[in-house]
């Protein structure tokens, strides 16, 4: 029986690379679709919610398309993978756009890195956005991390980072200017600040593991 993987389309610009990554690791048992239709998304077995850009624009588009309740329902009931803005949107509140309410699945805030470059202990300036490869330190095992070493490097592009109220939600952390949540997990939800679809073999392995994951931890 074919399992459907729905990639949520709310107008983000990076869907093609996410779809390409999923299709590269999917076998004949998985069908990848892109949709903004609530009924199609609710009928899928797995959900991928990617995003980039401003959270205010994201939430406005989600509200206009009626996807907010759909995303909340999917995150509660089936394997769900949030990427970049797809992680940040899960929080209650973001500093972006002079303050933006998120989906509120988890208590927490989305904060901005300092506006000006910061000199790190190694003497180098850390500029914002945080752009490029960086290590992720895993805090506990998870089925999606099978075959991925601690401190594996993934690709980041972001100026904001999430601070969950519950530190146990943080599955992986990264240091850039300060330590921040690079991956979050709870129940059937797995979400990353980095872009697995841009993270070469390690990122593809994450996507492959997600397709095999039944949502249990």
Itemize the secondary structure elements and their pairings:
Layout: E1 3-8, H1 15-25, E2 30-35, H2 38-42, E3 46-51, H3 55-65, H4 67-77, E4 80-84, H5 85-88, E5 91-94, E6 100-101, E7 106-112, E8 118-119, E9 125-126, E10 130-138, E11 152-158, E12 160-164, E13 170-176, E14 178-186, E15 189-192, H6 200-212
Parallel strand pairs: 1-2, 1-3, 3-4, 4-15, 5-7
Antiparallel strand pairs: 5-6, 7-12, 8-9, 10-11, 10-13, 13-14, 14-15
Helix pairs in contact: 1-6
What does the model show?
This protein is α/β, with parallel strands linked by helices. The protein has a single domain (3-212), classed as Class I glutamine amidotransferase (GATase) domain (Rossmann fold). Helices cover 25% and strands 37% of the residues. The protein has helices at 15-25, 38-42, 55-65, 67-77, 85-88, 200-212; strands at residues 3-8, 30-35, 46-51, 80-84, 91-94, 100-101, 106-112, 118-119, 125-126, 130-138, 152-158, 160-164, 170-176, 178-186, 189-192. The strands form three sheets. It has a nine-stranded mixed beta sheet, sandwiched between helices. Strands 6-5-7-12 form a four-stranded mixed beta sheet, covered by helices on one side. A two-stranded antiparallel ribbon has the order 8-9. The protein is globular, with a radius of gyration of 16 Å. The model has no long low-confidence stretch (mean pLDDT 95).
